[in-house]
Amino acid sequence: MNDLTCVIIGGGHVGLHSLKAIKEETHGMVNGRRLRFVLIDKQSGHMRKMLLFRPAVGQEDIMVPWTHYSFSEGVEFVQGKVTSVDSGAKQIQYEDTHGNHALMPYDILVVAVGSIVRRPEPDRGGIALTDPLAAAAIRERWHANLRKAVSEMNPEERKRLMSIAVAGAGISGVETSAELALEMRREASSLGLNPSNISVYLLSGQKRLFMEGPEKVGIKLDQALSNCGVKVLYNRKVTKAEEDAVQLSNGDRLPVGLCIWTIGLIPNPALQSMGLPLTSDGQVLVDECYRVQGAQGVYSIGDCARIVDPSNGKADLMRAGEGALQADKLGKIVMADLEGRPAPVHKSPSSIIDFFCIGLGEDRGFVWGRKWGLNMFITGKLGWKIRKLAWDKGSMLR
Ligand SMILES: Cc1cc2nc3c(=O)[nH]c(=O)nc-3n(C[C@H](O)[C@H](O)[C@H](O)COP(=O)(O)OP(=O)(O)OC[C@H]3O[C@@H](n4cnc5c(N)ncnc54)[C@H](O)[C@@H]3O)c2cc1C
């Protein structure tokens, strides 16, 4: 009998977890037929997206080659950008690295093309932390500013060159500003500058941090950021980043050497032309078992799909942690569907436990969990260890 082909589009956090889960659940055989796996991604390896701020701070490489993964044995990797899914003919169309268009047939298809980092309108200036190249541009810019500050005689201009605004105070804005403040202070010291002149402003449009949890979490986080040298400015958004300052929504002008945008994620815009049913927000429409409506054998999870718990109507957030749990369940769902058994349905992780971890630089972690209405906090070195574990688990490095 012919092999069955399982194609996974996207080797981000969720695509990788899906590949492993389906491989482990099926052991590569279903109903006496061998299951062949293909992972197709437009990039040459897995990008550790949660660590996108790292190349903006230091020189860390956040790409992991596919072959690094032990479960990748026997998996075919194709570098290409998928442009459309023809669910009638059960094939995808993609553009390879030479710009050629090709077709790839599938029996089972997992769409895990994720999200992209939201960009402000081009005339609003600054640099959005969208990918490793933008991160490197950010690093070069603040390094250059500090070098200029060394020979700057005007104290106000020197202070401006040593200041950064981070626009957007979600978890990525918090982590970016904390690590930047610590690293900029280190670099300032090594250049003979006064490290206490480093200013990292985190601009929040809200009245507090961490709207995902109770107020006291936001207050503790503000304190932790202040200890790293970050000043959070509330109820203020950056309206425009100019060459020497940012304009704020309350009319203030803040002199800074650089503005970095960290204003959240949006579903991958490439989905708009892929031929799959989408919500008005641009996420793939799936049922409670991640099956794409009207496309037999096609599943979608992760940031690119709208995943709702049928028992309480709660939609999952665009988070790697939630996507990894979806992937584990997807393995069981695919196996059940192939064997014609009833499949398990999605359950929102927040109906089991609320859990967030945030990194604030080496040995400075911040973990918050809530179960049965009880809040739990872990900070410092242990919080950092848990944070690192979550990053590594997210990219399947442990
Ligand atoms: C700075 C930052 C910090 C974050 N911190 C956290 C955190 O602390 N905790 C947390 O839970 N989440 C965090 N997130 C969110 C987390 O990164 C996402 O939820 C997660 O990456 C989603 O995984 P995914 O596989 O669905 O999508 P993605 O990671 O976006 O992966 C999609 C993959 O699909 C590929 N792809 C895209 N389009 C195509 C195409 N047309 N053809 C072929 N391949 C394609 C991409 O190259 C990529 O490899 C953070 C995100 C950012 C940016």
Automatic annotation (TrEMBL):
Keywords (alphabetical) are: FAD, Flavoprotein, NAD, Oxidoreductase
Pfam families attached here?
A: Pyr_redox_2 (PF07992)
Q: Which domain of life is it from?
A: Bacteria
Give start and end of each FAD/NAD(P)-binding domain.
6-309
Q: What catalytic reaction does the record list?
A: a quinone + NADH + H(+) = a quinol + NAD(+)
- Catalytic activity, EC: 1.6.5.9
Quick check: keyword Oxidoreductase in the entry? yes
MF terms in GO: NADH dehydrogenase (quinone) (non-electrogenic) activity
Q: Does the keyword Oxidoreductase apply?
A: yes
Family to which this protein belongs: Belongs to the NADH dehydrogenase family.
What is the name attached to this protein's record? NADH:ubiquinone reductase (non-electrogenic)
From which source organism is this entry? Answer: Brevibacillus parabrevis
